Amino acid sequence: MSTETFHAELANYLGVGDLRSDYPDGGWSWNRHRLTLGRYRVELTQDRQIVAQRPRGGGLIPSTQLAISGVRSFAEGERVSDDLCRLLSLAAQSQVVPLSYRFGGRGRQPLHPMGQAIYLRPLLPIRDGAAMRTYLETVWPPCYPAQRDRAFRPVPSPYESLRDHHDRRKEILHEYLLRLLDYRGRMLLYRHAARVGKDIG
Q1: Position 1 in a domain
Q2: Domain enclosing residue 11, as ranges
Q3: What is the pLDDT of residues 157-182, one digit of tens each?
C-alpha cells in the first residue's frame, strides 16, 4: 500500500480558502483549505493572484494545487480528484477540470483539457472560505458511502450488473442533492437572519 501523496493541478476554480499563507515579500492571502473527506486528507491551495483579484471568467485558467493523502493507487487518486472537481464545479457553476496528475513517480495529463472559467452567480459563496469548507466536508460522505472507504477495487465486481451500478449512482446523487439543498437552505436562512438583525439594530 502506498503512503505517498497524490498531487493534481486544477483549472477554473476561482474561490478562496479558509487558511492563510504568508509570503517572503511580506504579502499574505487566504488561499488554502485543509479538508477531511472520509479517509482522505486533502489540501487545496489557490493561486495567489486569483485570491487577490476580482475573479474574471474566460478560457482555461490554472487555479489550484491539490494534494490528497490516503489514496492507494494512481487510479484511485484520479477518481477522488475528478469527483472533487465535480463538487467544485457545481458550487462555482464553473467548469473545474484537472490539468495534470502526479503520484508514485508517475505523471499524466489529460490529452485535451477543456473547460471555461466562469464567475457569474455561483451556486454557493465560493469567495467565503469557511462556507466552502463546510460544503465540501458535508456533501462528501453521500458521494463516498462507507463501503467505498474499504479496500479500493479498481475493477467492478463481475456480480454487479450495469443496471445495479446505475441504480446505486442515482441513489448516491439523490442523497447528495438532498444534503446540498439542506446546506443551501441553511445558508439562506443565515443570510436572512443577518439582514433582519441589521435592520432591527
Answers
A1: no
A2: 6-200
A3: 333 444 454 555 555 555 555 565 55
